[in-house]
Amino acid sequence: MEEFTFKGCIEIKELLGKQAADEMKLLEMIEEVPSDSIYYHTHSYFLRHYYIAGPYPNDFANWAAIQVRDRVLGEKLAVVTPWGDKNLEDIRSELMEIIDSHLSETKNISFVVYGQPFYFMKSRIIEVPTGVTVQNLKQLRDALRLIDASAIYNHIFEARLRVRRRKSDFSIWLEDILGRKELAGNIEKIDAYMYSLEGLRQKILQLCEQELRK
Asked: Residues 164-199: pLDDT tens digits?
């Protein structure tokens, strides 16, 4: 039987030297920056927030709401998630459409008064070994309890970009190797963007426990 090998990850960050102090500049910079920057401010936001699942699940929404104090735009941007079949250019376009529409509706360009400018960064993810492999569901559950949270990120968020099937590594292994299609499907139904990494860990553990009790 093919084992499941847990792999954690680290994020290599780079400041781009680009910033925005108002919403129009934010729109312009989102159009201009490389896709690695869109990735950093959306996908890998969750890698930097292990324990807290806030109301603004990407850096753009958080900045608009907290630094600019434009809660309306923050809430609009908060619905942008890199889930499903979206690629980074799809996410870029969605962000731009929301900001452009918001500026057209308000006829007003909100800017930072007391907060911080938006500093654009980019990053890339590098996998790191954990030395942990499992062969069955019970071992998977036990490992999930202790594994570094970066492995949760890697096998849920990164996997959806990495594989054409747009599924988590956990779901693919559970369905293809262990034949646990229902459990795999239930994991895929989790809205990962509603949870912190630790919250996501607990949700997957709960599903594994339910499956083991059958």
From this structure: 567 899 999 999 999 999 999 999 999 888 888 999
| 158 torsion bin: left (phi>0), alpha (psi -120 to 50), beta (else) | alpha
The residues near 58 (Cβ < 8 Å, ≥ 6 apart) are 41, 42, 45, 77, 78, 80, 81
Whole-number Å distance between alpha carbons of 51 and 34 = 28
Closest residue by Cα to residue 143 from 50, 8, 2: 8
Count of residues making up the chain: 214
Over residues 35-64, the pLDDT tens digits come to: 999 999 998 888 887 766 678 889 999 999
Q: Which residues face 133 on adjacent strands?
A: 5
- What one-character DSSP code corresponds to residue 63? I
Long-range residue pairs from 72-78, CB within 8 A, at least 24 positions apart, any chain:
72/102, 72/106, 73/23, 73/98, 73/99, 73/102, 73/110, 76/102
Amino acid at the residue 200: L
